[in-house]
C-alpha cells in the first residue's frame, strides 16, 4: 500500500494512494480521486464497509442486487483480483482501467480472453462459446433455432481456431481480436474520459499536492 | 508551469475566483483555456455545492455552439476547469470593431445563438447572464456561448466597452428578472438574445441610460426604438422578442417559425457519443430529411460479437441513472436490411421524426424546443443499427442517446411489432433454448 496523501483517503487507511494508482494506470490523479467518489457510492449502497460486495456491484450495474446471470458473475469475479469475494478500491481502479479508451489494445484483448475462458483452462472451448451464446440469447429475448446457434458457433470457430484443435488459445484469440476490433467494443467505456465531471465532489475533497497533478 | 497533461501559458483573463490561462496539451499540442479557481475562497463563500452542480451541468452540454468543458482537476488549494479554447475573441469586440454587422451575418450568428440557447434549455440549463462578452466567435466565424452553467457565479464586469456605460449595467436583463418576482429562465434568456440581436444589427443598445433607475424604467416599459432602416422581418422579430410581457413574448418555437429567422437556416446538431470523437469538425448539419438511396453497411456478427451485446457486459450502468433497457433495445428480424431501414425510416417520418444516415447507422431525431423536465425530455436521438447473424436473420439494435424514454419505447415497440419475428415462432424457440441452457448449466 502506498502512503495516503488525500484527506478523503485517510478515512479508510486501507485504500491506496491515488498518486500510486495513477502511475500504474491510464488514469490521472484527479480521475482516481473522482473514481473514489463512485467507489464510495457503490461500496456504501448495502453493506457500508468500504468494500464492494457482489450484491452492491450488481445493484450499481443492473439496479438489481441478485441478478443471476453468467456474465454478471464473470465480470465481478474478474474485478475481484484477490479472489476474496469483495472488490477494494485498488482492484476497482485497476479493473476499470482496462475499459479506459486510452488503455492499450493488448490489455483489453487479454481481459476479454479471461472473461470468455469460463473454466479458467487457458483456452476458450467450443462448449464455453456455445453456452455463452445461449446465455446472451436467453437474456436478450433473442430467440434462434438450435441450428442457427450451431451455425454461428461453427462459423466463429472456423475463423478463430487456426490450428483446428477445437479450442482457442491466447495467441489465436489475439490474432482474431486484432482482425475483428468490433469484438472489443464493450471493453471501452467512453464515460471514463469524463469521469472527473461525472463525480465532481472530488474537487472539494482533494488532498493532492500541486506537484502530484 | 504545468498542470497534469497541460502546459500553462499566458493569462487570458481574471475573474472573481481566479485566473483563466491558455494551456497546451503536452501530447497533442491542442490549445485549451483553463479556469483556475481558488478552493479556499469557494469554501469560505459556501458555494461548494453550487460549483459541483455547475460542473455536473456543464458536463451535459455538448453542442458545436457551446463552449465545452473537457475535464476538471483539483489539488488541495485549487480547482482547474479545462475548457475549449475559442481563438476568435468576443462578439463584443467584433461589433465594436465593425460598428454593426450586416443583416446576413447578424442573422447567421443569431441562428447559432438560438441553437445553443435552445439546446441548453432542453437540458434544463438556463444562462441568466447572456451578453456579447459571454458570446465568443471562433476563427471560422461561428458562435460559441461561454459560461453556460457558470452563470450563477459572480462575474467580473467589463468597464471599457461600447456596450457598457456603467459597470455591471443590466442592459441585457429581462424586465421580469429586474422585478424579481420569479421568472421563466427560457423566456428571460430569449429577451437577452433579442438585445444581442438588436446590438448586432444596429451597433447600439435598445435600452441605455447613465442613470440605472431610468435604465430600469426603460427596460420595464420595453419601448425599444427599432430603426426603420432595418428589414421588415428583422424589425418584426425584434419587436416580438423585446416584448416586456413574458407571456406574449416570442418563445423558442415562435422564433424558429419566424420567416426572417428561417432564411438560410441549417440547424446545428448536438454532438452525440459517435460524434464526440470529431469535435473539431465544426457544425454537424442536418437536413429535414435525407433519402436513403443505399442503406448503411451491414456487418455480419460472429459469436463473440453477439455475446458482447449482453447488457451484463455493459458497465455503463455505473455512470447512468437509468437501466440499460431504457437506452438499448434489440429484436430479431427476417426482413432484409434494405427493407428494415426503409421501414424504420417510414415509421419514424410518419411519427414526425427527422431521419439521417450517418456512418453505417440510421439516426432518428426528434427536435424538441421545450425545456427539459425530470423525465429526460429534450431532443430525442436514436440510432438504428442492423447486424447479420446468419443468412436472412438480423438483429436490429435501437439505441437512445438522449430524449424522452417513453417516446423511445413506443417507437421501439412499434418497430419490433412490425419487423420482428412473430411471437409464436419465438416462444417455440425459447422452450428449446431453455432446455439447452439447463443441459449446459448442469454439465458445469
Automatic annotation (TrEMBL), chain A:
InterPro entries (UniProt xref): CNBL1-10, EF-hand-dom_pair, EF_Hand_1_Ca_BS, EF_hand_dom
Pfam families referenced in this protein's UniProt entry, alphabetically: EF-hand_5 (PF13202), EF-hand_8 (PF13833)
SMART domains named in the record: EFh
Main location as per UniProt: membrane
Highest rank taxon of the organism: Eukaryota
Similarity field: Belongs to the calcineurin regulatory subunit family.
UniProt subunit comment: Homodimer. Interacts with CIPK.
Name assigned to this protein: Calcineurin B-like protein
Organism: Oryza meyeriana var. granulata
Lineage start: Eukaryota, Viridiplantae, Streptophyta, Embryophyta, Tracheophyta
From TrEMBL, chain B:
Catalyzed reactions per annotation: L-threonyl-[protein] + ATP = O-phospho-L-threonyl-[protein] + ADP + H(+); L-seryl-[protein] + ATP = O-phospho-L-seryl-[protein] + ADP + H(+)
Residue ranges occupied by any Protein kinase domain in the UniProt entry: 6-261
Alphabetized InterPro entries for the sequence: Kinase-like_dom_sf (IPR011009), NAF/FISL_domain (IPR018451), NAF_dom (IPR004041), Prot_kinase_dom (IPR000719), Protein_kinase_ATP_BS (IPR017441), Ser/Thr_kinase_AS (IPR008271)
Top EC class of this enzyme: transferase
Cofactor(s) annotated in UniProt: Mn(2+)
PANTHER family: CALCIUM/CALMODULIN-DEPENDENT PROTEIN KINASE KINASE-RELATED, CBL-INTERACTING PROTEIN KINASE 21
Protein function: CIPK serine-threonine protein kinases interact with CBL proteins. Binding of a CBL protein to the regulatory NAF domain of CIPK protein lead to the activation of the kinase in a calcium-dependent manner.
Protein name: non-specific serine/threonine protein kinase
Amino acid at each position: 500500500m502506498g502512503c495516503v496523501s488525500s484527506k478523503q483517503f485517510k478515512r479508510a487507511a486501507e485504500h491506496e494512494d491515488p498518486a500510486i494508482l495513477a502511475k500504474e494506470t491510464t488514469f490521472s490523479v484527479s480521475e482516481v480521486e473522482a473514481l473514489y467518489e463512485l467507489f464510495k457510492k457503490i461500496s456504501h449502497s448495502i453493506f457500508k464497509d468500504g468494500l464492494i460486495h457482489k450484491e452492491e456491484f450488481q445493484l450499481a450495474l443492473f439496479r438489481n442486487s441478485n441478478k443471476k446471470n453468467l456474465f454478471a458473475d464473470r465480470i465481478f469475479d474478474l474485478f475481484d483480483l484477490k479472489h476474496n469475494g469483495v472488490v477494494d478500491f485498488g482492484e476497482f481502479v485497476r479493473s476499470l482501467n482496462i475499459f479506459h479508451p486510452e488503455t492499450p489494445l493488448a490489455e483489453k484483448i487479454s481481459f476479454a480472453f479471461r472473461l470468455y475462458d469460463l473454466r479458467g483452462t487457458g483456452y476458450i472451448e467450443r462448449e464455453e462459446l456455445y453456452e455463452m451464446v445461449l446465455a446472451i440469447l436467453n437474456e436478450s429475448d433473442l430467440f434462434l433455432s438450435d441450428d442457427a446457434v450451431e451455425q454461428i458457433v461453427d462459423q466463429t470457430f472456423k475463423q478463430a481456431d487456426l490450428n483446428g484443435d477445437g479450442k482457442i488459445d491466447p495467441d489465436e484469440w489475439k490474432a482474431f481480436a486484432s482482425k475483428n476490433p468490433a469484438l472489443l467494443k464493450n471493453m471501452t467505456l467512453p464515460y471514463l474520459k469524463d469521469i472527473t465531471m461525472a463525480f465532481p465532489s472530488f474537487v472539494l475533497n482533494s488532498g493532492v499536492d500541486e506537484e502530484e497533478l | 508551469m504545468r498542470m497534469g497533461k497541460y502546459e500553462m501559458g499566458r493569462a487570458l483573463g481574471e475573474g472573481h475566483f481566479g485566473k483563466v490561462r491558455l494551456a497546451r496539451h503536452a501530447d497533442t499540442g491542442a490549445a485549451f483555456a483553463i479556469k483556475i479557481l481558488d478552493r479556499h475562497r469557494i469554501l469560505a463563500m459556501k458555494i461548494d455545492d453550487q460549483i459541483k452542480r455547475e460542473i455536473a451541468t456543464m458536463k451535459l452540454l455538448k453542442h458545436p455552439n457551446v463552449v465545452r468543458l473537457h475535464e476538471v482537476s483539483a489539488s488541495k488549494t485549487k480547482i482547474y476547469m479545462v475548457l475549449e479554447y475559442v481563438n476568435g475573441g468576443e462578439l463584443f469586440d467584433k461589433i465594436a470593431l465593425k460598428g454593426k454587422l450586416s443583416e446576413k451575418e447578424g442573422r447567421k450568428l443569431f441562428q447559432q445563438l438560438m441553437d445553443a440557447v435552445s439546446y441548453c434549455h432542453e437540458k434544463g440549463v438556463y444562462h441568466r447572464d447572456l451578453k456579447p462578452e459571454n458570446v465568443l466567435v471562433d476563427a471560422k466565424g461561428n458562435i460559441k456561448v461561454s459560461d453556460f452553467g457558470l452563470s450563477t457565479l459572480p462575474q467580473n464586469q467589463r468597464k471599457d466597452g461600447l456596450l457598457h456605460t456603467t459597470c455591471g449595467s443590466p442592459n441585457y436583463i429581462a424586465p421580469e428578472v429586474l422585478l424579481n418576482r420569479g421568472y421563466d429562465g427560457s423566456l428571460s434568456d430569449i429577451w437577452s438574445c433579442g438585445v444581442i440581436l438588436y446590438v448586432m444589427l444596429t451597433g447600439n443598445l435598445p435600452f441605455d441610460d447613465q442613470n440605472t433607475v431610468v435604465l430600469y424604467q426603460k427596460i420595464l416599459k420595453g419601448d425599444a426604438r427599432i430603426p426603420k432602416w432595418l428589414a421588415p422581418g428583422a424589425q418584426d422579430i425584434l419587436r416580438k422578442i423585446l416584448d416586456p410581457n413574458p407571456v406574449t413574448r416570442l418563445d423558442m418555437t415562435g422564433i424558429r417559425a419566424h420567416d426572417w429567422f428561417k432564411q438560410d437556416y441549417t440547424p446545428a446538431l448536438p454532438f452525440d457519443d459517435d460524434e464526440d470523437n470529431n469535435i473539431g469538425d465544426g457544425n454537424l448539419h442536418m437536413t429535414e430529411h435525407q433519402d436513403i438511396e443505399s442503406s448503411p453497411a451491414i456487418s455480419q456478427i460472429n459469436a463473440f460479437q453477439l455475446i458482447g451485446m449482453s447488457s451484463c457486459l455493459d458497465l455503463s450502468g455505473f455512470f447512468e441513472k437509468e437501466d440499460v433497457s431504457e437506452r438499448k433495445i434489440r429484436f430479431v428480424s427476417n426482413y432484409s436490411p434494405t427493407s428494415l431501414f426503409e421501414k424504420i425510416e417510414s415509421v419514424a417520418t410518419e411519427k414526425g421524426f427527422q431521419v439521417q444516415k450517418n456512418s453505417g447507422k440510421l439516426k432518428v431525431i426528434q427536435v424538441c424546443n421545450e425545456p427539459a423536465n425530470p423525465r429526460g425530455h429534450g431532443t430525442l436521438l436514436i440510432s438504428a443499427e442492423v447486424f447479420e447473424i446468419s443468412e436472412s436473420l438480423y438483429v436490429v439494435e435501437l439505441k437512445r442517446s438522449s430524449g424522452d424514454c417513453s417516446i423511445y419505447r413506443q417507437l421501439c415497440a412499434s418497430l419490433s411489432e412490425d419487423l420482428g419475428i412473430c411471437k409464436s415462432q419465438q416462444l417455440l424457440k425459447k422452450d428449446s433454448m431453455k432446455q439447452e441452457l439447463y443441459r449446459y448449466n448442469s454439465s458445469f
